[in-house]
Amino acid sequence: YQRRVRGAFLNLLLAVSLHLCFPVSSLLFQKTSLLPKSNHTHKKKMVKYMIALDGSEGAQKAFEVALRLVKEGDSLTLVSVPKNASQSQAAETSLQKFRDICNEKSIQFEAVTDQFGDPRTVLCSLAESRQIDTLIVGTRGLSALKRLILGSVSSYVVEHATCDVVVAK
Fold first, then answer.
1. What is the full DSSP assignment across 114-155?
2. In angstroms, how far is CA 125 from the centroid of its own chain?
3. What are residue 75's phi and psi, to 5 degrees?
4. Whole-number pLDDT of residue 43
5. By C-alpha distance, which of 103, 109, 107 is closest to 80?
6. What pLDDT is stored for residue 23 in this prediction?
7. Residues 95, 100, 101, 102: is their CA dihedral positive or negative?
8. What is the dihedral of CA 146, 147, 152, 155, to 10 degrees?
9. What burial class does residue 137 get, using C-beta atoms within 10 Å of its C-beta: 0-12 exposed, 13-18 middle, 19+ buried?
C-alpha cells in the first residue's frame, strides 16, 4: 500500500513539475513554435535513383518500384549494361520502352548504355562514381543451384554496392 501511495505521489509530483516547466496551454497552442520554420530552412534533399534494366520481367518490376519512389526533383538514371559493344543496340532498344514511360510521366531521367562488361561490377562502380543514393534492381527468379553456378546480379549488388539497394520481386 505504501509503495502505491509513494508511486502515485511521485507521479503527481512529476506531473506538477512538468506542468510548471511546460504549461499544457503552451504545448497545445504554440506547436508551430516547436516545429522548424518552413521558409527554406529545411529543403528536401534530392534523391539520386539508379535502375538496372535488361528487358526482363524483373527489370520491369524494378522500374515500377522506381516510379513509386521517385518524387519531383529527384534524379533518375536508367542503366542497361551489355556484355560487349556488339550488344549495345539491344541495350538501347530495351531502354526505349522505359524512356517513353518517363517522358509520358514528365520524369527527368538520364539513360546509360555505354558501359560494357559484367553487370554486377559495372552497376556497383556506376553507383559509386555517380554518388547514387538508391540502386533498384530486379530478380531473375533463379533456383538456388543456378544462382550458385551463374551468380546473381542482385545478390552481388546488395553485398558490394556503396549505396542503398532495393530488390524488386
1. ---S-HHHHHHHHHHHTT-SEEEEE-----HHHHHHH--HHH
2. 18
3. -105, 135
4. 61
5. 109
6. 45
7. positive
8. 170
9. buried
Rounded to the nearest 5 percent, the helix, strand and coil shares of the chain are 55, 15, 35
Residue with cell 519531383: 72
The angle, 0 to 180 degrees and rounded to 10, between the axes of the packed helices 57-69 and 88-104 is 30
C-alpha cell at position 16: 506538477
Cell numbers for 27, please give them. 504545448
Q: What is the DSSP secondary-structure string of 9-20? A: HHHHHHHHHHHH
As a whole number of angstroms, the distance between CA 80 and CA 83 comes to: 10
C-alpha closest to that of 107 among 64, 140, 146, 166: 64
Angle at 155 between CA 79 and CA 87, to 5 degrees: 35
Radius of gyration of the chain (CA): 26
Which H, E and C letters describe 93-111, residue by residue?
Answer: HHHHHHHHHHHHCCCCEEE
Q: Which residues of the chain have pLDDT under 50?
A: 18-38, 149-150
Single-letter residue type at 66: A
C-alpha cell at 152: 546473381
